Amino acid sequence: MRNTTEQFVYKLSEGDASMRDLLGGKGAGVAEMTKLGMPVPEGFTITTQACRSYLSGSNDISQEIHEQVLSSLSDLEKATGKRLGDGVNPLLVSVRSGAQVSMPGMMDTILNLGLNEEVVQALISKTDNPRWAWDSYRRFIQMYSNVVMGVPEEVFEQRLSERKTERQVSGDNDLDAEDMEWLAHRFLDDYKQQEGREFPTDPTIQLFESIKEVRANADTPEDARRSQELGAEGIGLCRTEHMFFQPDRIEAIRRMLVAADEEERQEALDALLPMQREDFTAMYEALGGRPMTVRLIDPPLHEFLPKTAQAVETLAKATGHTAEEIKDTADELTEVDSMLGHRGSRLAVTYPAIARMQTRAVVEAAIQVKRRHPDWSLAPEIMVPLVSEPAEFEYVKQVVEETANQVIRESGLPMYCSVGTMIETPRAALLAGDIAAGAEFFSFGTNDLTQTTFGLSRDDAGSFLQDYYDKGLLQEDPFSHLDQAGVGRLVEMAVKYGKRTRPNLKVGICGEHGGDPSSIEFCERVGLDYVSCSTYRVPVARLAAAQASLGRHAPERRKDSNQENQTPPQ
Ligand code: PEP
Ligand code: MG
What we know:
Layout: E1 9-11, H1 20-35, E2 44-46, H2 48-56, H3 63-80, E3 83-84, E4 90-91, E5 93-96, E6 109-113, H4 117-127, H5 130-149, H6 153-167, H7 177-195, H8 203-211, H9 221-229, E7 235-239, H10 241-244, H11 247-257, H12 262-287, E8 292-295, H13 309-319, H14 323-333, H15 345-350, H16 352-372, E9 381-384, H17 390-411, E10 418-423, H18 426-430, H19 432-435, E11 441-444, H20 446-454, H21 462-470, H22 487-501, E12 506-509, H23 517-525, E13 530-531, H24 538-552, H25 554-564
Parallel strand pairs: 3-4, 7-8, 8-9, 9-10, 10-11, 11-12, 12-13
Antiparallel strand pairs: 1-2, 5-6
Helix pairs in contact: 4-5, 5-7, 6-7, 9-12, 11-12, 12-16, 16-17, 23-24
């Protein structure tokens, strides 16, 4: 009988070297070592499929993955006789990220996860080595803050030098237990200062936040900075909703959703404007003048509403609405199939005020940054998600354009804001020629385009696709490798129709396939101008793009290199 629950977490003893695609290079490697009987510490691997599910969903760990991780953690605790967060016999774990292909130096590790003040005291009692315990704690705070939250390393390095200067010592080894304790506490202060909230002391929260690290979309200034360091030439997709999920913003967006009338809604949006402007300003600063395409809010709005009774109560107090009214709004916004529901451009049709606020925030940020760096060429690009009808795109484009032009006029600074769209439905691909009349660029959202073309839910398909691979009906996961025969044909057709209408139409891809070498080769072949992928896939994507380009131009390049006797440029 078919197993309906997909396995997202594997014991080390369950894998082997052939499972690289599913377990990542590191996961498959340690599984093989375990199989060979080598002394490998206890642990488990979360699959690359879980990562894809996370990236393509609402960027939260699904209930299913959550439960599987907790159950594996409980097995680990039994096997080691220790417990995460235990005040007497604590378990400490390391969280290591990996990928199908090796990316030396790109994947981060968090060591000693599970530490907090109580656990530090337990370690001191057990080892009688307070310096080691406090040093481990301050290192963990530093690693977690940097890797998970993107707090710059320099913040902590500065503290370390501060303490060494004060103590008049030169090496870290010269610092004693008291210094390490002082550093741990200052690091906690720095975290709070940078993030606007306390460092998580609950080890389970530390664990799940660290697991989420493997995401790497360029939605934060830190992502933007890192991706540029890895060689990206800009940001092809900035998903703005992640900004809304931050704790200080979520309340403002919730206020907007439960607003009783237009006036109240506008008030909430006015409160969101400076926050979004600040986000985009930081992103543009981090990009140093390179381009960024910002996508208008995409997910169904009910995702932003409070889920627990306590959160409903808090929102009720903050807004003056009753808990009942808030629950009613949540009911109204909840859909049977939200992935095919009120999301993408449909939100901008119903709530043009959100699109206006977001456009204003992007353009005002670009203007601010341009004033600071007059030599940077800043031209905001705003992208409308999930379009299926040319008139729908035209409506949203008009809202965006009117707002952008007004902001630019007010500033007195010459600037151009372009408006484009994502091609994520078969209808958009079929009508690409009409859409291109108004759209200045296309970005293929191949996560959704795969979902809508196959009629498969990207969140649920994992539970039965294995049957298709086992029976030879499908060769590979269409959410990982672009289905060139079907989805690819739509992409090729849309490029052709779009360019026929607008010869200089810029076309790219921003689904997860943008980081997959075989899909990149296809993109090069059908004439896409750029690929956009998550931060840590940038090096692989650059290599694949260079190889695809060399492959395509091989005869001419050979001629060039013969004539000029030099290695072809990449
Ligand atoms: C896509 O659908 O390919 C895409 C990039 O958008 P999201 O994954 O956020 O829906
Ligand atoms: Mg999409």
